[in-house]
What we know:
Layout: H1 11-14, H2 29-55, H3 61-73, H4 81-95
Amino acid sequence: xxxxxxxxxxxxxxxxxxxxxxxxxxxxxxxxxxxxxxxxxxxxxxxxxxxxxxxxxxxxxxxxxxxxxxxxxxxxxxxxxxxxxxxxxxxxxxxxxxxxxxxxxxx
Length: 107
């Protein structure tokens, strides 16, 4: 995103800040970087908790991802809907699980 910033932000995250029909984010670069770092950190923090739920509590991976998504959307939350979805997708990626499918998509 920036030629002086060493953090490489995935296009999937940048897309959260690009309005349809546009090609550039609608937020300042510093904001997008800060939000990305927060979301990436949250996905990393959730990995151990998610694994514990699967192995000790016998939840399915899909159930764990759904619960994490619900938790990220619960008020008061620091995450937008798009960010919450991205965090859970990233969590699944970090754990090598199938991507998250919200309940309405799982039909």
